[in-house]
Amino acid sequence: MFAPAIAASELLDVAGVWPGPVGADGYGRAGELAASLAVPVVADLVGALVRADAVVACLDPNALDVLLDAHPTVPVLLDKAALLGTARLAALGQDPRAARLVAAYHARFHPGVASLTASVRTGELGLPHALHGELLVPFGDGPTAEGDLRHVGVLALDAVAAVLGPPSGDVHAVRTATGDPETETWTLAVRWHPGVVVTLLVSRGQPGVGGMLHRYRLMGSEGQVLVDLAAPALALVGEGTPVGYGPSPVQLELETLARGLGGTTMADLAAVSRVIDAAERSAASGQVQLLD
């Protein structure tokens, strides 16, 4: 995901691959990755951080600590950060070593989500009162032990947080698991703020079922807007040729962070992670759960 986005950018290049400490997840694959990118394997982490503009970190928790001990002064984009759990994210939000650490959830950088965020901040739609989102992903690598809400649904929750700000209310959630192999579907109703309700549908398709659905509808007192992140900007009639919005959200995310701007901080993500915690409690109990 990251390497193709960097390759497509005129502003970014891969400078090297750090394998992490011996025994870290992925340590043995670092040389293969570096060779495929035609870059060196980095042994001197501190020196490499001085020369870098940004870091993309796909690390296990132990390797993350080693990276933070090097006190990076450039943005560090952490992949799958929500899997660290709420307590660790909250601790990182207070850790001065993690001041430049941001989560790699790219939906907030999509032009459609950016337009929703701008419409809220400028009052274009009046007072927001509801936001509905749908995120259906292909089977891909399949379900994970941490569950699809934390692995996939966090992408939608982070996009909602970009539009509406941090959540502060309560959650009701329903989880269903069907198919062989078993896949999850989550339905969430979140009182995001007083007077603002968010509903989300998050699901993973069965093997062999293609396609993706990723869209949001924001409703306000003066109007509403629908954005579809999985659709092209337009299709040329007669040719069936889709035209994208320009750079991918991942590329926009990397370029923005390399300039030292934007991104989801660990404190921001901890707030989103509390929604996931409450949703899991709600699905287990069948009752509305307050955000901790």
Write the layout of secondary structure elements.
Blueprint: H1 2-8, H2 30-37, H3 45-51, E1 55-57, H4 61-69, E2 76-78, H5 86-93, E3 101-103, H6 111-122, E4 128-137, H7 148-164, E5 170-178, E6 183-193, E7 196-204, E8 213-220, E9 223-228, E10 234-236, E11 241-243, H8 249-258, E12 264-265, H9 266-285, E13 289-290
Parallel strand pairs: 1-2, 2-3, 4-7
Antiparallel strand pairs: 3-12, 4-8, 5-6, 5-13, 6-7, 8-9, 10-11
Helix pairs in contact: 5-9, 6-7, 7-9
The unreliable regions are none
- The CATH topology label of the largest domain is Dihydrodipicolinate Reductase, domain 2
Query: Between the first and last Cα atoms, what is the distance in angstroms?
Result: 33 Å
How many helices?
9
Order of helices and strands: HHHEHEHEHEHEEEEEEEHEHE
Strand tally = 13
The proportion of residues in beta strands is 15-25%
Mean pLDDT: 89
Biggest β-sheet: strands ordered side by side in the sheet: 9-8-4-7-6-5-13
